[in-house]
Amino acid sequence: MTLTLQAALWGAAAGGALLLGALVGYYWRLPLRVSGAIMTFGVGVLVSALAFDLMGEAFRRGGIVAASAGFVAGAALYAVANAVLAAAGARARKRSRRPASAAAGTSLAIAIGSLLDGVPESAAIGISLLDGEGVALVTVLAVFISNVPEGLSSAAGMRRAGQSARYVFSLWGAIALACSLAAAAGVAFIGGLGPAVAGAAVAFAAGAILVMLIDTMIPEAFEELHGWSGPIAAFGFLIAFAASHTL
């Protein structure tokens, strides 16, 4: 199996969490504390992944200059794009608690925001295969966990807005496919541009993830669990840290 195909499959696995979340959100009401705990655990996993896996890999591949430049670019561009989507109603796209009056346009903005989150994350998954040591499983796990609340939130809002199941799952299926293609592109195109570009691309994803955590996941996780959010996130961090040093 080629690296490009492997990357596409791993990207599809991580992006498939969007479909899983959409399925649950469209047909069932998951208890808020359960969805909040999933998201909070994902915060800890993502913090570990970007600190010990993504930025470490970016530095090893491209050096401090490429890693720093990519990180700054990812954080800045994501912040701008996120501000635009927030104005369209996608600020709380990780949230499972949505008002019954949520508009279909807001839910579509959330779906676009999920695409914004998923592309750099999936590209980083693909690039991780280039070192010949297999995929970064911790990164895949982190992306998977963070994607579930987005699918939950938007699918529930779209259902209340009267959108059909065919529309909802076609939309999320297309976004999951885009994540798969982004992972494949990470191997096929970015990896072929040299170690500095590959390192900057991984750091770009790390910068985007950090801004996403601060802007969307952490506020919503705290809203759902309050005092429990810290310990659950710490547990997620520890699990991811241990996994990254043993798997």
Please identify the structural class as seen in this structure: mainly alpha
What is the average per-residue confidence, as pLDDT, rounded to a whole number? 79
Radius of gyration: 17 Å
* Count of separate DSSP helical elements: 7
By DSSP, the count of extended strands is: 0
Strand and helix order: HHHHHHH
Give the low-confidence spans: 98-103
Main pleated-sheet profile:
none
Bulk shape: globular
- First CA to last CA: what distance? 21 Å
Report helical residue fraction.
Answer: over 70%
Give the percentage of residues in beta strands.
under 5%
Topology at a glance:
Layout (H helix, E strand, L loop, with lengths): L2 H25 L4 H59 L13 H24 L9 H24 L4 H24 L6 H31 L3 H18 L1
Helix pairs in contact: 1-3, 1-4, 1-5, 2-3, 2-4, 2-6, 2-7, 3-4, 3-5, 3-6, 4-5
Would you mind describing this structure in some detail?
Helix content is 83%, strand content 0%. By secondary structure, the protein is an all-alpha fold. The protein is globular.
